[in-house]
Write a structure and sequence with these properties.
The protein is α/β, with parallel strands linked by helices. 42% of the residues lie in helices and 16% in strands.
Length: 450
């Protein structure tokens, strides 16, 4: 009988996170201040606890996972590795398709993998209040859940378009005790300035980050928490790929190609980085980040120093960017509507060690429906991007006859995104490829460095 579900025991939850910096051929570029000089830890301590900053700047290959964090992980981890045999049959492909299913977490996505340690480390540092942003709501609901577990108050600025599109995500955050506000809001100088220019602004992750950072920087009792992009966030997500490697070992398989959605980079890094360690050691494995054509950061952005937020509160980081004032369209994959990518993901892409593709919105929903009808799980709109790219490769295998082994990160379920599927079935969604001239206009505002 073909093995279709590979599980691990609780005692097989990773004891350490994997730090990709140790295996990168070149050291990461340092974050810079507005003066173009490297930002020191003391400047970041205003909004982050010291233990997270140590992880952010570490070059050590393995970072121990605290017992309290591993204990919290046991609520839903280890997550299953599943072979999509029914999808393989529906496609008529000789490829073997596997997916790592992160939708079994309390919030229904991969985001608690970093929310739990962030809440824990802030509590350890004596911080009892956090601000953050969220797009589609997976991150917001995850940090709300984590805050409740460790007794930390959470205030969330939710991108306005998603605030309206995802009401039940908002309800989840409130159920776990968080305050949630549509961004841009009138509660911060950033929000008021944006609304003065455009009262109907749909918001963006860059704007929501600015509001959360502005509030955290202005209150001594409050730190800022980020759901993607930064090194320590990507580090925490590597539990996904580390588990997947153990699961493949159990059945004597290994993936030829790995796909994951990519907005800020934590989803992709979580499953791909542990396999990059093998790639760095000579293993032939392809790692593909999948982004929307409407927000094509890696595939159409530039590799430059830019702010991570819309107002310039964050340090300058070298990364692929569409410009910090880039305003993405209101696509339903809200978690991928971000103007820049993780510096680590960006550097690996710039050095041609990983790959990236962009896929249109309608094709992602078509792939999500095909997957759901074959495998039963309805993917989140973000996850549908990885499904699309994996299906495309499986169909290429059908043409070539290659029996490749494919893996994708099914990073969350779509149970709170059914309004998006309703619009897809009604024919109300459309593809949007961001015009090159609009990207050029946004990039013209990149900060001057040096």
């Amino acid at each position: 009988m073909t093995v279709t579900r590979v599980t691990l025991e609780e005692n097989e939850i990773p004891t350490h996170w994997y730090n990709v910096v140790a295996d990168m051929p070149n050291p990461p570029s340092p974050p810079l201040g507005p003066d173009g000089k490297p930002v020191g830890p003391e400047q970041m301590l205003a909004i982050f606890p010291g233990n997270l900053l140590e992880q952010e700047m570490s070059g050590e290959r393995w970072i121990p996972i605290p017992d309290a964090v591993r204990d919290a992980y046991r609520i839903w981890r280890p997550t299953p590795l599943i072979r999509a045999t029914r999808l393989e049959a529906a496609l008529g492909t000789p490829a073997k398709i596997f997916y790592k299913y992160e939708g079994v977490s309390p919030s229904g996505s991969h985001k608690p993998n970093t929310a739990i340690p962030q809440a824990y480390y802030n509590k350890q540092a004596g911080i009892n209040r956090l601000t953050t942003e969220t797009g589609a709501g997976q991150w917001g609901s995850s940090i709300a859940f984590a805050g409740q577990m460790f007794g930390v108050e959470v205030r969330i600025y939710m991108v306005k378009i998603s605030y309206g599109q995802k009401p039940y995500r908002r309800s989840m955050m409130q159920t776990w005790g968080a305050e949630v506000f549509a961004s841009p809001s009138d509660m911060t100088q950033t929000g008021r300035a944006i609304l003065a220019k455009d009262p109907n602004s749909l918001g963006s992750l860059g704007i929501a980050i600015s509001e959360a950072v502005e509030e955290a920087a202005g209150r001594k009792d409050t730190n800022y928490s980020l759901g993607s992009v930064l090194n320590h966030v990507l580090l925490h997500q590597t539990v996904i790929g580390l588990e997947a490697k153990k699961q493949f070992e159990k059945i004597g398989e290994y993936p030829d190609m790995i796909f994951a959605p990519c907005g800020g980079g934590s989803n992709f890094a979580g499953i791909a980085f542990p396999f990059f360690a093998d790639k760095a050691a000579g293993k032939n494995v392809r790692l593909i980040a999948v982004e929307p054509t409407s927000c094509p950061t890696l595939t159409k952005g530039v590799y430059a120093y830019d702010f991570g937020d819309a107002s310039g509160f964050t340090p300058l980081m070298q990364m692929y960017t569409l410009g910090h004032d880039f305003m993405p369209p209101g696509i339903h994959a809200g978690g991928l509507r971000y103007h820049c990518d993780s510096p680590l993901v960006s550097q690996l892409y710039h050095e041609k060690l990983i790959e990236a593709v962009a896929v249109p919105q309608l094709a992602t929903f078509e792939a999500g429906v095909k997957f759901a009808r074959a495998e039963g799980i309805i993917p989140a709109p973000e996850s549908c991007h990885a499904v699309r790219a994996c299906i495309d490769e499986a169909l290429r295998c059908k043409e070539s006859g290659e029996p490749k082994t494919l893996l994708f990160n099914l990073s969350g379920h779509g149970h709170f995104d059914m309004a998006s599927y309703d619009r897809y079935f009604a024919g109300e969604l459309e593809d949007f490829e961001y015009p090159q001239e609009a990207i050029a206009a946004s990039l013209a505002h990149l900060p001057k460095v040096g």
